[in-house]
UniProtKB/TrEMBL annotation:
Pfam families: AA_permease_2 (PF13520). Keywords: Membrane, Transmembrane, Transmembrane helix. It is a multi-pass membrane protein. One of its GO terms (cellular component) is membrane. The chain crosses the membrane at residues 12-30, 45-69, 90-114, 134-152, 164-184, 204-223, 243-265, 349-368, 374-394, 406-429, 435-453. It comes from Sphingobacterium allocomposti. The keyword Transmembrane helix applies. This is APA family basic amino acid/polyamine antiporter. The lineage of its organism: Bacteria, Pseudomonadati, Bacteroidota, Sphingobacteriia, Sphingobacteriales. PANTHER family: AMINO ACID TRANSPORTER (PTHR11785), SOBREMESA, ISOFORM B (PTHR11785:SF512). It is found in: Membrane.
Amino acid sequence: MEAKENLRRSVGGFSAVMLVVSAVVGSGVFKKIVPMADSLHDDVLILACWIVAGLLSMIGALCTAELAAMMPGSGGEYVYFRKIYGHFFAFLYGWASLVVMRSATIAALAFVFAQSFYALLPDALITGWGVPTLVVKIFASLLVVVLSLINLRGLSLGASLSRVFIIGIIAAMFIFIGYAYLVYDAETTTATVVTGSTPPAAGGGSGWLTALFGASLAAFWGYEGWNNVAYIGEEVKHPQRNIPIALIVGTGIVIVLYLLMHLAYLRIMPVESYAAMMETPEKIAAVEAASVMSGPVGGTILSVLILCSTFNCTNSTILLSSRIFYALSKDRLFFGFASKVHPRFHTPANAILLQCAWSCLMIWMGSFDQLTDLLVFAAFIFYGATAWAVIVMRRKAPGMERPYRTLGYPVLPAVFLIFCFALVVITIAGNPLRSLMGVGLIASGIPLYYHFIKK
């Protein structure tokens, strides 16, 4: 079947909002308070990081919404970058999504799902299974394969699965929050506090700056995925209206959820208890907090919630991200097989399978924190390019129809652009080896680009 076989518009407005929330609420809200507490040792600063990261993500969503309403199509930023910056930069974005950003996101989420699943299994069952890390990676790979096959069978099936799961997940999170504030008596329970690392004040002014940006990276991983719904612009009903609404409303829901969850965490246990968990990376902060609040039963329930959340977020990311490689291939800037639409299911089947294979490879290449740090660094290079694209298009094509206009233009896009630049620079200075790895993976696509251009 040729690439001209069309994808179908089957996603409505409510489903699009739920897909945004599904693509974001994964593992970060349950795990990332630990490295943030270890860096900052202050509950107010931790909450401030989540608020700032949420507001900056919202500004990014506002910028993406303007471009998505102007140029709805499969591939999201790839479509806008091709129009504004040309094929070379658009190709680099698509290539980076495959080798660093989207595949690493899928791998990291699947990794946390597998860790949670393994932790729930009784010891008697897993005795003799071998090295836990090896077993976890096998589970994670199986999850990616199974969910890829589900999404290969149709967008509606994958979207319906995400919608059902995310409604249940939001309800469970509000139950946890309500229990922490209305039932749990923090004064009668004392969490064990273990002395962890030295607070950043010991390092002087530069120590605070490094700590804040390190914590920001952790918070931004929690918000990663807010832009994913734009990837299916070709399959959203009334995309000029529904995509901006989904981006803004979905991101707003996530900000509120995250802030309430972290207020609950810090009510249940002191910040130093979370910092001490850096010594036991197999522990998940939310599970430990639930265990303190309501015993082993609470910990088990939270483990099941994390299992459902990471399952759902992995599913949504697989569903949405594969459209980037489909769009690349349609433009003949990628391997031709990736643009084939399944004749029965009307999905970019080969693009989904390609993404599946690379995500499984990344599961075996790195740990959770290595994957998340790498993808956040790479993602903010292109988030900054999106903010700049809004400014460029306002100057180059002022008369072009804009169903949605970015709130606070040009101040908010400029603020977001400056922050993206600062985050990338400080990440390079603080972790040059991992940053170089990310840049190297992106640059590895340059020879392929010239190969496809020659063909």
